[in-house]
Give the backbone structure.
Amino acid sequence: MSFRKLTPMKFIHPVFKGKFLKRYKRFFADILLESGETIIAHCPNTGAMQGLLVEGSPVWVTHNNDPKRKLHYTWEMSYIDNTMVGVNTQHPNKIIVEAIENNKIPDFEGYSKLDTEVKYGKQNSRIDILLTYPDNSKYFVEVKNVHYKDGDTAVFPDSPTTRGLKHLEELCHMIDEGHKAAAIYCIQRNDVKDFRFGEEFDPNYAKMAEKALEKGVKMLPFICNLTADGIIMDQKIPKIY
């Protein structure tokens, strides 16, 4: 697949720098802002966050004044191993949708309709992106956030994921029904060269991923560049190990 430079996803709310103190109850993080104020930020990542929970590490949060929100700050990025790393797992879907709508990923060109969060499959699932083409053929696209690395290699998953396993099974079912299917791994860091499945964290997912590849599910890992202004998908990793 050829690759075209993607446009950046900009943060729409003000960004503030601070230091990570601790994460607790999965959704909460204590952050010390540069102003000296300690705030509780929403942690938009329910995973293990391997390698990101380093006390004192620089972090960036956005601030949303919406009175309906209980927590006005959201943890967006960390600076780990001399690299900006994305924390917010809600961004990859937005980045991919924007890229597809702007015809930036050639694999998906030519569709006539794009839907998100559509019910499908045998296990009461929802597909991240469903593309319908003029001949009524369909392309089912699942998006995964990746932040963990081992040396120069990005790794997914970094903890057991029954949900991720279910999604791969569903994509395989779509192939069996005559549709196209893909899993996009959005790597929110730019200090990696390769991608592999985290067999040491979830051997079942790794085995299922290999089966999905053999069946015809496309696996597309993309590397992102991150700044305090936004996130840019920079390049596709050509090979999965």
About this structure: The longest helix spans residues 162-176.
